[in-house]
């Protein structure tokens, strides 16, 4: 079994989901007492969020590259960044290490296409929804990407940082998200991609008839499969 190097802590709540999902997949596939070989480096999210908010992506890349190098030196066979947004600096990190990074958008695009989805609406931080680093991976795979209007982008982003990352789950915010999901459906989305781990704390498939694809779940399960099969 290969060793997975997790870069987590963004937020720590989402990292617990990764750890659980990876190990559940390993257990399902291999049975018995099998569990994943994992090296985890958990950051102080306040530091990373500060660099995000100030637009200092170069510093974010520097910090996460140093972590990836430490995980590689410790024996990781590949890297999993346990967040959607920080894949923005994926190219810079990859240049600093010899082992591969499993990209969350590529893994999710593969899952969407396997199920015949052509038009998807991603929900996540404002960076994930609007910037090319994530959207271009979906477009390159042949998907049509539909995003909320500016008011929707602002509200989705606010709820993530001001509520969900703090463990604050509000029914009013859930209703707001469901309205935005309905709006995406009305403009042609065949599915919504939950491109931020914390959103899964607020909205579940039972809440809407539009298909939801949890990028975190897809990413974690793919990491487990890669660990088993190479």
Given as residue ranges, the uncertain stretches (5+ residues, pLDDT < 50) are: none
Global geometry: globular
The structural class is alpha/beta
Roughly how many Å apart are the termini? Answer: 8 Å
Strand content: 5-15%
Q: What is the CA-based Rg, rounded?
A: 17 Å
Count of discrete alpha- or pi-helical segments spanning 4 or more residues: 10
Number of strands: 7
For the residues shown, what is the average pLDDT? 94
What is the N-to-C succession of helices and strands?
Answer: EHEHHEHHEHHEHHEEH
In order across it, which strands form the biggest sheet?
A: 5-4-6-7
Nutshell version of this structure?
With 230 residues, this protein is an alpha/beta fold. Helices cover 53% and strands 13% of the residues.
Question: How would you characterize the overall build of this protein?
Answer:
With 230 residues, this protein is an alpha/beta fold. The chain has helices spanning 12-30, 45-54, 57-74, 90-94, 104-114, 126-130, 132-140, 150-162, 171-186, 215-229; strands at 3-8, 37-42, 78-81, 119-123, 144-145, 191-194, 211-214. The strands form two sheets. A four-stranded parallel sheet has the order 5-4-6-7, with helices on both faces. Helix 1 (12-30) links the parallel strand 1 and strand 2 (37-42). Helix 5 packs parallel to helix 7 and helix 5 (104-114) packs across helix 10 (215-229). The longest helix has 19 residues, at 12-30. The radius of gyration is 17 Å and the shape is globular. The model has no long low-confidence stretch (mean pLDDT 94).
């Amino acid at each position: 079994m290969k060793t997975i190097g997790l870069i987590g802590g963004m937020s720590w709540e989402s990292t617990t989901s990764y750890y659980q999902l990876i190990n559940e997949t390993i257990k399902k596939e291999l049975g018995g007492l099998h569990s994943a070989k994992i090296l985890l480096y958990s950051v102080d999210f306040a530091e990373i969020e500060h660099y995000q908010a100030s637009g200092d992506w170069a510093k974010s890349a520097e910090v996460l590259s140093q972590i990836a190098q430490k995980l590689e030196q410790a024996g990781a066979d590949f890297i999993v960044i346990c967040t959607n947004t920080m894949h923005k600096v994926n190219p810079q990190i990859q240049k600093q290490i010899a082992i591969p990074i499993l990209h969350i958008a590529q893994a999710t695009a593969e899952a969407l296409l396997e199920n015949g989805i052509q038009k998807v609406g991603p929900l996540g931080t404002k960076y994930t929804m609007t910037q090319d680093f994530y959207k271009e991976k979906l477009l390159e795979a042949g998907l049509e990407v539909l995003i909320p209007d500016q008011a929707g982008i602002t509200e989705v982003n606010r709820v993530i940082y001001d509520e969900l990352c703090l463990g604050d789950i509000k029914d009013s915010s859930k209703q707001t998200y469901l309205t935005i999901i309905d709006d995406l459906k009305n403009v042609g989305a065949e599915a919504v991609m939950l491109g931020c781990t914390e959103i899964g704390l607020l909205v579940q498939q039972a809440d809407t008839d539009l298909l939801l694809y949890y990028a975190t779940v897809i990413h974690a399960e793919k990491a487990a499969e890669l660990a088993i099969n190479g």
